[in-house]
Amino acid sequence: MVQSVRVAALIGAPTDVGAADRGASMGPEALRVAGLQEALAGRGLEVLDRGNLNGPGNPWRPAVDGYRHLHEVVHWNRQVHDAVYAQLQASRLPILLGGDHCLGIGSISAAARHCREKNRTLRVLWLDAHTDFNTRELSPSGNLHGMSVACLCGFGPRELVELSGQVPAIEPRAVRQIGIRSVDPAEKRFVHEQGLNVFDMRYIDEMGMRRAMRGALSGMDERTHLHVSFDVDFLDPVIAPGVGTTVPGGPTYREAQLCMEMIADTGQLCSLDIMELNPAFDMHNRTAMLAVDLVESLFGKSTLMRPVDADGGIGAARGE
Ligand SMILES: [Mn+2]
Q: What is the Cα–Cα distance from 92 to 4, expressed in whole angstroms?
């Protein structure tokens, strides 16, 4: 299948107002330094770098009424929503360079608005160590980067929940979460109650990444808009130390590559977030370079040409 969108637009959102640690604000530049634009161009995409969005600094205050920095988080998410939506309207593939994962609210709200207008079905793949399904009642910290998916599903502060122009922006059944291994106790019950589709590490351990991805990508058709929200802490910290909230026991290099390659095989990736990269915790920008390497696979880089069988499985690689 040929991808319908071949022009990608990079949108930097240099902020960490939703995070537990400072430093994700340096993520966009680290991804550029690691050669993201060149890598995408190497995959045959035309790449426009729209530069960075602007917004308030990080006031580093405690939670008020259960939320930390709500005003700042709303400001940044409005910027992100408008920028991502504008690129989708222009038939480009927006790539949001985070920034912490609270910005997934703005990005996915824009995708949801776009899909509604174009009569397309949104499928969100949330690659993350965390479910990000907290509310202010459930969250131990009040950090909004742990509440993104709940906000998108209609649970959260009005200004964030309403961003897409409809509440909820998405239904839980539009989401597939992969790589999950850290969920707060009360959040766990809420995930279950709302019926979120989660392929956690136990599932990946027992069934393999291939089965998880087959499940996560099942039921799509030609009208599906696939949005990938890639939190870099999805990856095992042994290979990806450059994030604020490392959780041991994540996907290995090979598992992550397979995940990205299987998404690429669908040919339906229409929007992407690369989130939570934190250069303050990284070593020689290696996590940024790994993220770029994985994004290449996400856009179809593979070792050899592979025939895809009718079942969606692959045959042995052929070198001709
Ligand atoms: Mn996250």
A: 10
Catalytic residues: 101, 128, 130, 132, 145, 231, 233, 276
In this structure, the number of other CB atoms found within 10 A of the CB of residue 282 comes to 22
User: Three-state SS for 279?
Assistant: helix
Of 2.40.50.100, 3.30.70.890, 1.20.58.1970, 3.40.800.10, the CATH number of 7-298 is: 3.40.800.10
pLDDT tens for 220-261 read 999 999 999 999 999 999 999 999 999 999 999 999 999 999
Query: Which residues are part of a known binding site for Mn(2+)?
Result: 101, 128, 130, 132, 231, 233
Ligand 1 being an ion, which residues bring their Cβ within 5 A of it?
101, 128, 132, 231
Sheet holding 121-127, edge to edge: 46-52, 7-13, 93-98, 269-275, 224-231, 121-127, 175-180, 197-200
Name the 3-class secondary structure at 283: coil
Beta-strand runs (E) in 128-185: 175-180
CB atoms within 10 A of CB 29: 15
pTM attached to this predicted model = 0.95
CA of 284 to the centre of ligand 1 (A): 23
Band (pLDDT 50/70/90 cuts) for residue 2 is very low
Q: What Å distances lie between residue 319 and 78, 257, 302, 303, 304, CA to CA?
A: 48, 20, 12, 9, 6
Percent of residues in the chain assigned helix, strand, coil, to nearest 5? 40, 20, 40
In this structure, the number of other CB atoms found within 10 A of the CB of residue 91 comes to: 11
